[in-house]
DNA sequence: ATGTGC
């Protein structure tokens, strides 16, 4: 059981102190029966012999702990809590440890009605919005669910400040969709099993470091992170990451004939920056230093590495897709580069050839863990169907209105509604259910009712969202499905073949551990931020395979 | 989510 070690001391005589372990089960809510506050009071009574403890201050700052939010933002390792019998704080009050201005009035909205939202995640959303400096708008998408400290399925818009922990360690994580040349009848029914069998050689490092560095060369230069992290490029990773072969069941995306059409077989890749992004978060932040002021050297350095990790993650998804395509379309020589066999041709020209080919296959690629500098408030895009859109001539979300200024949009498990490099609205993006359940095809909606994307902070849900913690899913679902093989379609239905050699993941990522993707989609539609333009059936879902290398 | 953290 994780516990936090704090020090309890007498406010009136601060040399008198005692350590206290606060179990993770203790509640920050002072009105709760198992509150941290009551633990501190009890410790003061029994260990420090303070008869009537009544107030608690934070050592060093003198901030009094009153609300649940106070407790939440304070309880960390080695904090000293000063217990008072009613008297004022003894010492010089300092400014809060977080410099800059928090915005206790910050607007917080959760775009969910149908999808169930855990109260803890709403508390996490509001606490972060109200206590971190510079936040001007916080949005919980319908897939909102609790994270370790900050929620997932959340968007935080800030002025002048960047908060790396709000986007987490998997910087650049996102999803990309690729068309394949497979036909529905090659993957439907029991054929899914044969397709799953073909998916091999996808684990472990791809080729040599020299090859990986060549792959990590993009239009902006190199995004190589050094051999220790680059080794993981082209690998899916753990947790909720996956690659899935899907059949388009319905599609009404007739935009320039692009978007996937009915009966197309497409590949969805969900992965991020593996260990690299986490190393960046760790390098720049500590438990008490999580906020960076705009234009500070640290902020600039973080942003530079953040942007590099985003490019790395994107290159990772492309390489994963290449490796999958080499299994799925063995006749296509260009994909041979995806295999771990020695180069038979010039590497650089092979890579540029493959890139061009893959670009034709790519439907969309988005980051859902990142921070972006954008103009705010949003402007109507010209692609919009409303007449109001005619006013802008730029065609961009950002526009060039004089009343706009720049903000930072932090996304943690939230997809953007526009293409980050062109600022044009996206035509289509995936809303995957959990393993094997349908993936909805979303089209972002921009309208006056949503203030052109302000309401949803220019973002949409990135998936179904957990409804059960990993621990809960593991214990309850492993019992529930004790006698069932979750890796094969159940019964006669056209279900999904799952490749997952990690036993715990089978349960942690089971559909039951997630919200219903249709409820999430319905919420987005009701809120007026997206329309559902089709859906895909998962045929083969690849998580991880333990194979002899 | 992670070449994780005691």
TrEMBL record:
It comes from the Eukaryota. Keywords: GTP-binding, Ligase, Manganese, Metal-binding, Nucleotide-binding. GO terms for molecular function: GTP binding; metal ion binding; RNA ligase (ATP) activity; RNA ligase (GTP) activity. GMP binds at residues 240-244, 368-369, 462-465. Coiled coil: none annotated. Mn(2+) 2 binds at residues 270, 368. Its EC number is 6.5.1.8. GO terms for biological process: RNA processing. Mn(2+) 1 binds at residues 170, 241. The keyword Hydrolase does not apply. It is an enzyme of class 6 (ligase). This is 3'-phosphate/5'-hydroxy nucleic acid ligase. It comes from Trematosphaeria pertusa. The lineage of its organism: Eukaryota, Fungi, Dikarya, Ascomycota, Pezizomycotina.
